[in-house]
Design goal:
The protein is of the alpha/beta class and about 625 residues long. About 35% of the residues lie in helices and about 20% in strands. It has three domains: about 200 residues, Thiamin diphosphate (ThDP)-binding fold, Pyr/PP domains (Rossmann fold); about 160 residues, TPP-binding domain (Rossmann fold); about 190 residues, Thiamin diphosphate (ThDP)-binding fold, Pyr/PP domains (Rossmann fold), CATH 3.40.50.970. It is globular. Helix 1 runs parallel beside helix 2 and helix 8 crosses helix 14. Strand 4, helix 2 and strand 5 form a beta-alpha-beta unit.
Length: about 625
């Protein structure tokens, strides 16, 4: 057997560089690159190894470990899970900074390879700088924090262990059902140790994602349920995108006359103005989608885990005769909510189910109701998206969204993550093209936005990328503006400054509370900060401007901007306004006992709403 003598780190990166995939008709590397912030736990071992393969496996430098992992996650999401990036850090804070990002990837079922440095396997210099010491367990390090947020976790304490660990990691990263983050903790001394590796280990490997077909019995039961439906509804989740099933979804809906409602991850599976697209569903849903969901007798959920924002905390689908079919590649998700499972790839499942349904079409009166509801919603949306202007008041988030949407080209991708914007975007963003909406709302992680925009642009360089971010998220993680500038990544970043956490302030008030510790003016302070976001973004390398009206915002966005690098457009907004049209109740526990009458009243309304939840059927 022919062997190569390499350090563990050299062998690892050579293996990663050999992984390929057929993507958009071309054979390309599976790994789009490695994000790295070096320290004493990885610079000598993995750093030297990455230097040697940078022509085949590019290394990107970021400014924050969590942010670079967000960029890697966004890259995978924007690639529909077909391509992956890796992230490496030193031990200690560099590693634990990525734990939040690992949770983002885990919740959203997205592939991410994490390669944090670890302590010395030989323990000779223990305790080393940044080492976490457990008084009860000498095998524990900071990297054990990744265990609950990793689909696969391993600590490499011998150089030959990667011969089994890496194939196992790849199996998880490319599995449609088990996809998620992988953590390989790399002991820093082992990174530098040499081993005679089989040359065959580094042979080119072409990955092809499996498409499980449905079980015939499950398929027959699902088709029988749908064939009896008087008011059927499709819920499109992120799995529609990841399975590349958007064409199949459209064909299924059109053939059978069934309307489609979209989750946050599923939005832009259909063009916004498709006659069967009801828009967003649930807490942040349109009136069209939610009214249909309340009446639907058979719901076909495709590629979604049906989290509480989608189901209105299990109070939305309230037809007493309603039945739920869960088409999902993961059996874990397919069995949720007492659904009839249909375990399969989304595209295979939709195509075979359509054939089984034959000529079935939803009744005409249901289709007429759908058209009327979509028309009514579009009229309501137009009212909040319009630029009223001229009254001197601060614009709403919805007005800003309208301006950005009108200024964007048809192929643009909007990126967002947390705060009030995701709810408004879910209802109101109008994507002409499939895949034009990129929201991280499984973990709703503040700080994802700008780093996520970088990942999206790396994955889709030919499309315009627009990041929308509130001042709260911006202040949490803005460092990657400098990364975008350094890499020449063209982004448009729209910063909405409502002077605090406006979304949670509205939730606080809506649940009977007083404004407290959310808006800056209601937080403990001696002097209120007057933050110049334009100057700050400019100092990090962005071309930046602040505008004072919706008209000025549209004008700024229509300017060409720099040929490369980020630009930021800042606008002040009203923290108290949100779109009242659409939406649904959300279960946010309200104190059962309080001295304040506002809380008492809110609790009574909460108890009444909670009685509508359906947990057992």
């Amino acid at each position: 057997m022919s062997t190569l003598r390499l350090t563990m780190a050299q062998a690892l990166v050579r293996y990663l560089a050999a992984q390929k995939i057929e993507y958009n008709g071309q054979l390309v590397p599976l790994f789009g690159g490695v994000w790295a912030i070096f320290g004493h736990g990885n610079v000598a071992g993995l750093g030297e190894a990455l230097y040697a393969v940078q022509d085949r496996l590019p290394t990107y430098r970021a400014h924050n470990e969590q942010a670079m992992a967000h960029a890697a996650i966004a890259y995978a999401k924007a690639s529909n899970r077909q391509r992956v990036m890796a992230c490496t850090t030193s031990i200690g804070p560099g590693a634990t900074n990525m734990v939040t990002a690992a949770a983002v990837a885990h919740v959203n079922r997205l592939p991410l390879l994490l390669l944090p440095g670890d302590v010395f396997a030989n323990r000779r210099p223990d305790p080393v700088l940044q080492q976490i010491e457990s008084f009860q367990d000498a095998t524990v390090s900071a990297n054990d924090c990744f265990r609950p947020v990793s689909r696969y976790w391993d600590r490499i304490t011998r150089p030959e262990q990667i011969l089994t660990a890496l194939p196992r990691a790849m199996a998880v990263l490319t599995d449609p059902a088990d996809c998620g983050p992988v953590t390989l903790a790399l002991c820093q001394d082992v990174q530098a140790e040499a081993h005679d590796y089989p040359e065959s280990f580094f042979a080119e490997k072409i990955w092809r994602f499996r498409r499980p077909r449905p079980d015939q019995q499950e398929l027959t039961r699902a088709a029988a349920l749908l064939a009896e439906a008087e008011k059927p509804l499709i819920v499109a989740g992120g799995g529609v995108h990841y399975s590349l099933a958007t064409d199949s979804l459209q064909a299924f809906a059109e053939r059978h006359g069934i309307p489609v409602a979209e989750t946050q991850a599923g939005k832009s599976a259909l063009a916004w103005d498709h006659p069967l697209n009801l828009g967003s569903l649930g807490v942040t849903g349109t009136s069209a989608a939610n009214d249909c969901a309340a009446e639907a007798d058979v719901i076909l959920a495709v590629g979604t885990r049906l989290q509480d924002f989608t189901t209105g905390s299990r109070a939305l689908f309230n037809n007493p005769e309603r039945r739920l079919i869960q088409l999902n590649t993961a059996a874990y998700d397919a069995g949720k909510h007492h659904a009839r499972p249909l375990v399969a790839d989304a595209r295979e499942g939709l195509d075979t189910l359509s054939a089984q349904l034959s000529q079935y079409r939803a009744p005409t009166d249901w289709q007429d109701a759908i058209s009327a509801r979509i028309g009514a919603w579009n009229q309501a949306a137009e009212a909040v998206l319009a630029n009223e202007g001229g009254n001197g008041s601060l614009p709403s988030d919805a007005q800003v969204i309208g301006a950005v949407n009108r200024s964007a080209d048809d192929q643009a991708i909007v990126v967002c993550a947390a705060g009030g914007l995701p709810g408004e975007l879910h209802k109101l963003w109008r994507n002409p093209a499939v895949g034009g909406y990129h929201l991280e709302y499984g973990y709703s992680c503040m700080g994802y936005e700008i780093a996520g925009g970088i990942g999206v642009k790396l994955a889709q360089p030919e499309r315009e990328v627009i990041v929308m971010v509130g001042d709260g998220s911006y202040l949490m993680m803005n460092s990657e503006i400098a990364t975008a500038a350094m890499l020449g990544i063209k982004l448009t970043i729209v910063v909405l400054d409502n002077r605090g956490f406006g979304c949670i302030n509205r939730l606080q008030r809506g649940t009977g509370g007083e404004s407290f510790n959310n808006l800056l003016q209601h937080a403990r302070h001696e002097t209120l900060p007057d933050i110049d976001f334009r100057a700050h973004a400019e100092s990090l390398g962005a071309a930046a401007v602040k505008v004072d009206s919706i008209d000025a915002l549209e004008a700024a966005l229509r300017e060409a901007g720099p040929a490369a690098g980020p630009r930021a457009v800042v606008i002040d907004t009203d923290p108290l306004i949100s779109t009242e049209a659409g939406g649904h109740w959300w279960d946010v526990a309200i104190p059962e006992v309080s001295e304040r009458s506002e809380v008492q009243e809110a609790y009574q309304a909460y108890a009444s709403a909670r009685a509508k939840q359906r947990l057992a059927d």
